[in-house]
Amino acid sequence: MIRLENVSFSYRGQGPSVQNVSFHAEKGEFIAILGANGAGKTTTVRLIDGLIKPDSGKVLIHGADTAESSVSERARRVGFLFQNPDRQICRNTVREEILFGLRSVRGDEKEEALQARTDEILKDFSFTGDEEPFSLSRGQRQRVALASILAVEPEILILDEPTTGLDYLECCHIMDRIRRMNEEQQVTVVMVCHDMEVVLDYAKRALVMAGGRLLADGGVREIFRDAALMEAASILPPQMIGLSLRLGKGFEQCDSTDTIVQTVLDARRGGAKHE
Ligand SMILES: Nc1ncnc2c1ncn2[C@@H]1O[C@H](COP(=O)(O)OP(=O)(O)O)[C@@H](O)[C@H]1O
Ligand SMILES: [Mg+2]
CA 106, CA 103: separation in Å to the nearest integer? Predict the structure, then answer.
């Protein structure tokens, strides 16, 4: 679905922001890109979206080179949810917002089909359609932006810090909806996220970046348990992973309070003396 081959990119007059990055993602994967500020995460997802083209190397989306494909082809396949929903919302009602996105990407389809798709997605997100986006809360506006992206039914969903500025419940709302889409429609998700707890809860694979380079690519749990890697990338792993590492032998599989407590209880029942 996504293939980067030795991709490098520099913004005008700057050193490389992405250097020699290669990886590929299959349909239905849920990948997080991790790294400190300035590591090159946003640049990488913009390259995947085709907003910018590599200086060298190739970005292939479903086999098509982004340097050669058209904006409309890519918009049909790739949805991009920004950190700030207000960069995406431009209409006065939620219904118009969703229709606007649909018309711009699926304008070749019949108006009735677009209206029907709008009704479907409004219902799915529990919007009436008459809401005015700018009178909604930040979390609700992020849901409007997500709804209008999902309306188009992209094959790839890119999220750049989707939960920044949201409270815990709003974050769960958004992330659960994204997970459903990933699991039910096999949409490939690539997410840049600063919240390592969210990464642990939702992503399955992680790419770790530092200084524009890809340092590691692997399962989220294995990545978080690699202390040297976390240090090199200036990432603080989720608290429960940190705790399980400190607890040591017997706690390797633990990544939540539940699994840690259960491991202690099992050890007691088994009569083992845990330090
Ligand atoms: N629009 C831009 N123009 C010039 N330099 C940029 C621009 N966007 C990012 N950079 C630079 O590219 C590097 C990587 O940035 P970015 O991809 O935004 O990192 P991240 O998302 O990991 O914080 C940084 O050094 C940053 O200063
Ligand atoms: Mg960024």
Answer: 5
